Write the structure tokens for this entry.
Amino acid sequence: MDSVRTIDGIDTGILMLLEESPRETVLGLARRLALARNTVQAHLDRLERRGLLSRTSNRALLEAIGHPILAFTTVEAAQGRLREVVAGLAELPEVLDAHATLGEGDLVCRVAARSAEHLYDVVDKILHIPGVERTRSSLAARELLPLRIDPLLQEWAHGRR
């Protein structure tokens, strides 16, 4: 978390522009920020090393590779077996990510599938991971508000930290 506190105005500007235009080139960023290309590249490298650059939505890519079904699967794990469950989830390429949750369930995963039948098979594989007790899945019908951080970046940039 220390790396988050050490981003500067240039970092914030880069992150805001990339949120707006994720495919912007280094040269394009440099022009828009009125900075040298090498300066922007150095900041991008530092942001990447610190894990502060996130990937944008990959929904179109998932469709292009034949996995148009996206589901959110809640996983309940047996007491003390969460690491084992996460290791098992990491073995399934259809499990895009997993987040520990507070509340109902222990994990929420984004799962990509080729069809409803394929999703059923993936969830069955999840259920067979040692330590998994129960799952619940909800299909994502339409993305109404994509993952975004620009409002938080703008708030941060204007001193409302």
Observations:
- The longest strand covers residues 69-77.
- The beta strands are 69-77, 95-100, 107-113, 132-139.
